[in-house]
UniProtKB/TrEMBL annotation:
It is an enzyme of class 3 (hydrolase). GO terms for molecular function: deaminase activity. It comes from the Bacteria. The gene is yabJ_4. InterPro entries: RidA (IPR006056), RutC-like_sf (IPR035959), YjgF/YER057c/UK114 (IPR006175). The lineage of its organism: Bacteria, Pseudomonadati, Pseudomonadota, Alphaproteobacteria, Hyphomicrobiales. Its EC number is 3.5.4.-. Keywords: Hydrolase. This is 2-iminobutanoate/2-iminopropanoate deaminase. Belongs to the RutC family. The keyword Hydrolase applies. GO terms for cellular component: cytosol. It comes from Rhizobium tibeticum.
Amino acid sequence: MSRRTVNASNAAAVGPYSHATWAGDLLFCSGQTPLDPSNGKLVDGNVADQTRQCFDNLFQVLEAAGLEPDDVVSVNVYLTDMDDFAQMNEIYATRFSSPYPARTTIGCASLPLGARIEIGLTAKRHS
């Protein structure tokens, strides 16, 4: 099987993976941590700042695939501290419009590079 992948030049990757992979009309985006693509370093600041950067990175991947935020059908959010949920949720609400994508939010022990948040998503190309 040959994979049809998407990589955005202005989103960082910290391992041997593609930013996204197509499966039919579905685009499965790898989780993005809050890395600043200009320097490859984790964004300093609170979880709101890190959430913004995760979405900036993900939306660059969507754009590289010819999609936009309205094409997102599902989002997975991973937080190292569930006390950050309200702050993340506030930023999340500014990135999508109603009707919102399905979402799962999971508390986890740790994330790559000490990030407080990682976000992955699935989008659908409309024919």
